Amino acid sequence: MTYIPDHLDFQVAFEPTKMHDKKYVLNNETGEYLGIVGKSFQCASHGDFFRGVMDTATQELGAESLEDAEHTFKTARNGAWAMLDVTLPNIKTTITTDKAQTEIGNRIISLHGIDGSCSNQVFFGAIDFFCTNGMITGDHDKVRKKNTSNFTMDSFIYELNRARTDFFQQAAKMQVWAETSLKFINVKDLLDSIISSKTKAEKMFGLYNTEASVRGHNKFSLYSAFTNYASYADERNGFSLRNTGHDTQAISMWSREQEVSKWVSNDRFRLLEAA
Amino acid sequence: MTIYTLKNSTDGEVWEATLPQILHEINDDRIGEWEEYDETDWQEGLLHFTTWEIV
After folding, report:
1. Residue A236 CB neighbour total at 10 angstroms
2. I want to staple A70 with a disulfide (CB 3.0 to 4.6 A). Which of A32, A87, A151, A229 is the partner?
């Protein structure tokens, strides 16, 4: 049974509003109002959803794969949105560049919202143990998937069964990236063409150079710069998040992971091996 | 077009609706990371995110 933090393991309650077709969503433990939804809205609690994900994952991948797994919960919107990021250290491999080696491990990310802000979603990915950068694997268009709250749906089980194979396939692709030199590529121009914001592209170029100083001038370093952007938001990488005061930082970081997934699907990035 | 009869499990209200109306009910007012349900998985969306049941 997966441990769910107390502040997330609450039952969801509803209360009518003055509008006939809307109702409030409440945290039943604290009485805190979390959102307004249509009157027919219902959903599973975070606890039931995440326990369902992990129970099914344990069943399908085997207890040994999840042994020593690290569970990280992130929340936003005062607990209405939650994310469970599970790192599986027992499914791992090594990526080697001409300057360095790093281990990457498999990762399962599940998202859940109780205020209509998020359908039930599960993603697969990897984590770089050297810098703890998170990565989503799969093509951008295919990576967004819905699943049922009780996870009996065949497609989720099918994806879980493919997770190990997909992880090693993705790792093989990253190894090719590690061997793809960017010494004769104008990385600044490349970033300008992939990233629409000039300022962001400029900062990303700086981040790439930092990564390249450790891992060499190759495509994996560029990817590491991207995943660094999606994993950290502070002075270290120059991509701080604005504090909007609306408890949305975890969602913003998740959006960055999806942004990275989009950049990686861009033809200019994809076809670098052929250059 | 097929008309579906649905019953609201909270108050017993009966609703006759077409698939586009049902999809609207499931996906309406959603924000952020909501992935819209469609013709292929609407029954799942209905089951997990609304109080409507198909009669």
Report:
1. 11
2. A87
